[in-house]
Amino acid sequence: MDAGDLKVFEAVARLGGMNRAAGELNTVQSNVTTRIRLLEDQLGTPLFHRHSRGVALTAAGQRLLPYAVRVRQLLEDARRAVEDDGVPRGPLTLGSLETTAGLRLPPILAGYAAACPEVDLVLRTNTSAGLIGEVLEHRLDGAFVSGPVNHPELAEQTVFHEELTLVTARTVRSIDDLARRGDPRIVVFRAGCTYRQMLENLLAGRGIVRVRQIEFGSLEGILGSVAAGVGVTLLPRGVVGPAWNGLVTLHDLPPAQAHVETVFIRRRDAYVSSALSAFLEHARPTMRHADAAE
Q1: Where do you find CATH 3.40.190.10 in the chain?
Q2: Percent of the chain beyond pLDDT 70?
Q3: Assigned CATH class of 162-258
Q4: 266, β-bridge pairs
């Protein structure tokens, strides 16, 4: 068993078929099938169940897969390290909460793009849970999420402190007024959003435990629905800009529930490219300001 065998095995496991793996590896299916059969013979156990739609991992294959993923990533990191001459260039894929992307990142990203024009920067938005998973799976170089995360495989640093506010239609006079209006709807991002969980906890603390939710994929959709009286939401105060004045009402929260930190996470064991290193250096003044505020 060598690194090449594990690379083929990982591709078959990830893509669910010999033919699909062959396409990604730029070879023919017979070569992939032979490599997998020889690996199984060497290990003395089947790694895949074969079926008409492709393959599925056996119990032994499931135990082997994490090691194959680590080997693939280590080889990729080794290639990137050799190619990296210290000048920030090439791909950099980051993740962010929708609210952070709209409120906090534009000046940082604009300054970074001007300073590092050879970097191909991609920013993806998702929930905190989704972003953490993508970083752990090596699909993102790093991400801005709600913290603290406290995961042993992740390095994290506080970047921003946000003040949260309950956002309702103009006709809602107070948070407690919601309880007198029956079971409210919450207008939120999809499951895995930290603000969504905090909103549910906030309402539960006031005896509102039966809530219906409406999910949106954009901040504008959430605020527009709240303004129309569809439901309520919980957001950083800064994202509710002047354009929404008179359309929604912002309700102050108790100090213990009003503050959340946004942290930048990356894998501890992943290679830090010159592109990522330059980004972190560019964002460092913001990080130092956040640390000083604690």
Answers
A1: 90-161+260-293, 162-258
A2: 96
A3: alpha beta
A4: 155
Q: Which CATH superfamily is domain 90-161+260-293 in?
A: Periplasmic binding protein-like II (3.40.190.10)
Residue written as tokens 């962010």?
Answer: 96
Of the chain, the percentage scoring pLDDT greater than 90 comes to: 54
Helices (DSSP H) in the chain: which residue ranges?
3-15, 18-24, 29-43, 59-83, 98-103, 105-115, 128-136, 175-179, 194-204, 219-227, 255-258, 274-293
CA distance 231 to 27: 54
pLDDT at 289 over 60: no
Q: Give the pLDDT mean for 186-212.
A: 83
Residue 292 has pLDDT above 50, yes or no: no
Q: CA-CA distance, 87 to 127, in Å (whole number)?
A: 32
Q: Do residues 263 and 148 lie in contact, with contact meaning Cβ atoms separated by under 8 Å?
A: yes
pLDDT at 293 over 50: no
Q: What is the pLDDT of residue 59?
A: 95
- Say how far residue 201 (Cα) sits from the centre of its chain: 22
CB neighbour list of residue 170: distance below 8 Å, 6 or more residues apart? 227, 246, 247, 248, 249
Residue matched to tokens 């906030």: 202
- Using pLDDT thresholds of 50, 70 and 90, give the confidence band for residue 227: very high
Fold of 3-83: Arc Repressor Mutant, subunit A (1.10.10)
